[in-house]
Specification:
The protein has about 325 residues and is an alpha/beta fold. The chain contains ten helices and 15 strands. The strands form three sheets. Strands 3, 4, 5, 6, 7, 14 and 15 form a seven-stranded mixed sheet that branches. The chain has a six-stranded parallel sheet with strand order 10-9-8-11-12-13. The structure holds NADP nicotinamide-adenine-dinucleotide phosphate (NAP). NADP nicotinamide-adenine-dinucleotide phosphate binds near residues 169 and 194.
């Protein structure tokens, strides 16, 4: 089968179209013919992981170390990227009961990666579900990572209708799903924070208000929120606390040890809290997300799609700072 393979860390050009062995499903696995796979934050990070120092990494040192052990210090151990996908079940192992040949599916294979290829094998009890009927393969492929993160974050805070949420990082991989699920599923009032050129995009996702972080510091506006969800961990708690309601919480999706200590400290006292978020992906969450999509509460906006042989161009565009929506590698239509 064909796959976009990288054997050295580096710029997008390290991705090369190659012929590799087609996987064969084990007894408890399904073989998926991949139709589409997006280029997300993890893909561009791991492709260039050698250049990522603990300082540049958005999470604590231990997570960086685990990443280096998993993906390789000098050379990539996992040579095919792609952690989300949509496609069709081509074959099933003899013990598989959840899926049949021909099922249209979407899913998340996480740090195992491998979806930048014509085929992927996956355990049937992995994070894979029947694709929403209302979405194309490209649209569905772009949903799982962001929506699973968003659903987990919002469920854990027990978000109530009418509560005010600010999402800093509203235009990336996770933010758009947080904006939509908070607005349309939980009934919250959402303010999105993103760069100037993506304000219209974030507004179109249902945000009540959008702030351009290059022009306005939301922590100085005097406005307060029940929850501030900081996707990249850009806003220090010392500043965010002024923008929280008396029992408000600032949730860090990316964090360093400083925020971990702030979480421990604020958990011991009343009032405003810093919370570091860790998300566990579950199959049942993806099944629920399919229902949200079919109910019209979550959509994905595809900015550009590229064929597999142009995976390097897809990465270049994803990193260009120009995208308004998701960048997808369309392997089959
Ligand atoms: N805790 C967990 O379990 C978990 C799981 C997965 C991922 N993560 C973390 O999530 C992060 C990736 O999230 P993602 O995929 O959504 O990233 P992404 O696609 O790169 O999106 C980043 C977003 O941040 C915005 N942004 C950039 N600079 C900003 C600033 N100064 N102020 C406010 N917003 C700013 C960008 O806006 P513009 O593009 O409009 O400039 C964009 O909306 C990583 O750090 C990763 O480690 C955490």
């Amino acid at each position: 089968m064909k796959a976009a393979v990288f054997t050295e860390y580096g710029p997008p050009e390290v991705l090369q179209l190659k012929e590799v062995t087609k996987p064969s499903p084990k007894d408890n696995e399904i073989l998926i013919r991949i139709y589409a796979t997006p280029v997300n934050f993890a893909d561009t990070l791991i492709r260039n992981f050698r250049a990522i120092s603990p300082r540049k990494f958005h999470m604590p040192f231990l997570f960086w170390l685990i990443g280096k052990v998993n993906f390789g210090f000098r050379k990539p151990k996992i040579t095919i990227l792609g952690s989300e996908f949509a496609g069709e079940v081509e074959a099933v192992g003899k013990d598989v009961t959840r899926f049949r040949k021909g099922d249209r599916v979407f899913g998340y294979c996480g740090p195992r990666m491998g979806a930048n290829a014509e085929y992927l094998s996956m355990r049937e009890n992995g994070v894979v579900a029947i694709k929403p009927a209302t979405m194309t393969y490209e649209e569905a492929a772009a949903v799982p990572y962001g929506a699973i993160m968003a659903l987990n974050i919002l469920r854990n805070i027990n978000l109530q209708p009418g509560q005010k949420v600010l999402v800093s990082g509203a235009s990336g991989g996770i933010g758009p799903a947080v904006v939509q699920i908070a607005t349309f599923h939980f009934g919250a009032k959402v303010t999105g924070v993103c760069g100037a050129s993506r304000m219209e995009y974030v507004k179109s996702l249902g945000a009540d208000k959008v702030i351009d972080y290059t022009r306005e510091d939301f922590t100085k506006s005097g406005e307060t929120y029940d929850f501030i969800i900081d996707i990249l961990g850009k806003s220090p708690f010392s500043r965010c606390r002024h923008s929280l309601t008396p029992n408000g919480r600032c949730l860090y999706v990316s964090f360093k040890m400083k925020q971990v200590f702030q979480m421990l400290w604020t958990s011991m006292i009343g009032g405003k809290k810093a919370v570091c978020v860790l998300v566990n992906e579950k199959t049942e969450d993806l099944i629920f997300i399919k229902e949200l999509i079919e109910a019209g509460k979550v959509r994905s906006v595809i900015d550009k799609s590229y064929p597999l042989e142009q995976a390097a161009d897809a990465h270049r565009y994803a990193e260009s700072g120009s995208k308004k929506g998701y960048v997808v590698i369309a392997i089959r239509s």
